[in-house]
Amino acid sequence: AGCEKEPSSYMWIYILLGNMLRGIGETPITPLGISYLDDFAKEENVPVYVACLHTIAMMGPMFGFLLGSLCARLYVDIGFVDPGSITITPQDSRWVGAWWLGFLIGGATSFLSAIPFCFLPKSLKKPEEANKDKTSHGLLENTGAVRNKLSPEKTKPRKWSVMLKGKLLGNRMYFTFLCCSLLQFSSFIGFVTYKPKYMEQQYGQSTSKSNFLIGMTSLPPVGLGIFLGGLIMKKYKLSIIGATKFSFTMSFLSYAIGLLHFFVGCDNHVVAGMTVSYE
User: Domains in the chain: how many in total?
Assistant: First the structure.
């Protein structure tokens, strides 16, 4: 009767709200950070700086998996029970790691790393050879100047639906880039989310070891690839068309190599009622 009772814990609400707040705080870094670099860095150095930004962003999940591997080795009630009284090991299917410990460490680290952003200057000295009209700041100033010259009838607020249809979704280059990004992130998130569980089920690895292997083998090559891509763009000074061809070639090679995953795996476990009959 006790097993049939509905769970009464609402911890998932706190995790949901915490992730929501974390997302709100992290969102401005990528769009505004890239614009900040594009405005105040030399044009030939922007690809390297952006590559460094994304490379460091990839190191975060890597350390997160390593931290998760460490926390999974600790019992879920660490600090509340006597370690000597625990009779099971991480290899036991009944073992539950200290999943909550990673949230505390990650939250404290995020809070401390956000403090230096408060001391960034509002504006930096732009490179002398930079063309003001090419920077987002210059475009905003020019847009504001033009907007001031317009009549009041032409400055009416536009609806979001009209702006999305006319400016964003109507731009073929932006729409194509958006679709590519959705496909790439969908595949990457699915890979990172389910690969540890797949390694546990198919290869009999513990949760701790699965997270460790994912963090050490999957994410560092991605960060290295982003950094090398930035160096290549800076060295050969690729134009938009050249960068598009380069991106297409690398994406196609990644897709072709990714097909090899279909040939990796083990036979299904013998489970009565699922893979074999009860008889």
Answer: 1
What's the pLDDT tens digit per position in 8-51? 778 888 888 988 988 888 778 777 888 888 888 887 788 888 88
**Strand locations in 56-119 (E):** none
Cα(19)–Cα(26) distance, rounded to whole angstroms? 10
Question: Considering the domain boundaries, does residue 180 fall inside one?
Answer: yes
> Which whole number is the average pLDDT over 176-185?
82
Contact of 212 with 195, CB cutoff 8 Å: no
pLDDT tier, 161 (very low <50, low <70, confident <90, very high otherwise): low
Task: Tell me the pLDDT of the chain averaged across its residues.
Answer: 78
Q: What spatial distance separates the first Cα and last Cα of the chain, rounded to whole Å? A: 29
Q: Determine the structural domain holding residue 92 and report its residue range.
A: 11-119+160-240
Residue 262 lies in a domain: no
Any residues with CB less than 8 A from the CB of 65 and at least 6 apart, and which? 211, 212, 214, 215, 216, 219
- 3-class SS shares of the chain: helix, strand, coil, % to 5: 70, 0, 25
CA distance linking residue 90 with residue 216, whole number of Å: 20
Distance CA 219, CA 61 (A): 7
Q: Does 187 map to a domain? A: yes
